[in-house]
């Protein structure tokens, strides 16, 4: 690490030029290629997949129209729309609501136009989807579109809020470290690396199954860890300057210490994200790969671009208040002298935050179009359908048989009609009496499969979402075990300890429970099935930043003194301010994403905000020191070094002056 940082420091102009050229080249390539996101979920063994195979292959979109009066009075405006839809490329049929009573609401104010295409939505492409939406735009009518093709036009959330998060992070950096250089360098490093990562995500969408949400998740993770990684290296560099080292020597030591921690933390985040591969779905694999790319580039930037920027900025002296204050020494001494009350208080906080998950119930499912951004065609269609045809109109199911039998179909229709509205025919269209997000609708899917029996299959968007949730839920135990095992092994390799990685795993599980509890309390249900997977993988990876940064300093002091309690105080005082500042910065970036117009991004933003603050403040600064004090020398087993019988705790006045 020291050699790499030293070379980047010496050849600063070339390193900066290479990063800027890479950023410009990737952005231009991404703009030229365009995005090819795919939100389709492949479930080969699912019942809904078999139903889709038995239905016509072409995509069917529902154009929902409402008029100020009735659709009869608006016929002169609706019929031109019918002709325009018929002229669209790859349209094979347009079914007019005039002459089809089932496509008109009871009050005759809302009508549905069925538009059939000659191929599935994922083969039609986003360009045709945008053309469809442009065709239905009119000032005279309120029009929405429901279907897989229309869903492609629900744009990616506006990432402008990320700039607000970075601005807030810059203010925290300025207040905490009192240096404009400490503000600019981490922000610039994160911005360049994440900009490059987002361009790579666009390019990867052409060769992998990359869902649209990957862009936001990659930006969210990359900006959060990017500022942190740069800050860890910069903090250690400043400590070297404080001790009188020349800039290059200070940087080399920072690379050998904090730089190695950054590499370990970044690799751990990537490995934890790779745990999503155990679920076995290309949809989640795309999120894992793109997120790992973002984290990997931010890690590389902290080790190469940051040293080059340090050379150009000429940062050789420190602001007046750069030394740590006395508050951390006082807290550290208090926690190590009375560990039990602090441990109990920390566990109570976690329990209160985690309580909503079991109390309210963690219900997994894909939220319907009602959660799409306001004014989007899909949300407008959802509102119009619910108002004109009932809450279940946008969650229709289909019952299709392997071998159509009109008599059996009619008998099944009579049974299903007791719980839902059913249209006659060889393929039964079932309209639930509850909304797509209602648990009763998901229960209806299971009931239909029971009463229909073998030879019949249940399809439709709600059925696909139900099967997706079931598939993810069934694989969660394997995923959790894989991520926990990987984290424990990596920490065991770094610290040569058994209890430290085991206690870290338990504490991460506690944080994960509290995080999910807050998300359930704030958003209710359903929660996207892949969100707990992403939050758990991200949390386990991100928590390693603070774990390694804190424990490595504690272990360093323990090896020097042989006193666990003294080492805990030394480690907490020397890292406490950096850990909490880094956590606050990351939380501010994550919190900015909690206000975008995408529900799942808001959930991820809130979840990760809670996770990093809880992990840094409650877990690392309170619970970890308290537990380590109780474990004593057992923390370092199987190390053969003996614990010294006396563990003096330095006075806060002494510690504030000389700690490094």
TrEMBL record:
The keyword Nuclease does not apply. The chain crosses the membrane at residues 159-177, 184-205, 217-235, 262-283, 289-310, 342-362, 476-495, 502-524, 530-551, 572-596, 608-633. It is a multi-pass membrane protein. Pfam families: MMPL (PF03176). Residues 187-312 form the SSD domain. Its main location: membrane. PROSITE patterns: SSD. Keywords: Cell membrane, Membrane, Transmembrane, Transmembrane helix. This is MMPL family transporter. It comes from Amycolatopsis tucumanensis.
